[in-house]
Amino acid sequence: MVPDCTIFFDELEHSLATEFLPALFGTEVTPTERNLFSLPVHMGGLGIPNPLQAAQDALCISKKATQTIVQAIKGEMEYDSEAHNETVILARTKAKTEQ
Predict the structure, then answer these.
(1) 1/70 Cα distance (integer angstroms)
(2) Whole-prediction pTM value?
(3) Mind listing the pLDDT tens digit for each residue in 65-76?
(4) Do the beta carbons of residue 22 and residue 29 sit within 8 Å?
């Protein structure tokens, strides 16, 4: 987990918004259009995620999925592999549902 890692994706998002998408459509792309294009296809978007948001989402999912094992490492609880696996599955399931 790397908090505040979105800065590493700024250049990629800038290229998507100012080079790739305008080349694809032959015109400039507004920030609102860029947001729409990041939506999944079944919601009318292009499914081209914003890497800044994707990185932040991945960090949140990772934190939720590893909370059981982190607590065990910190000595706050006994490690339980079944509880850890359940936490990971719940985090993944919730992330898919929210997407």
Answers:
(1) 12
(2) 0.65
(3) 998 989 999 999
(4) yes
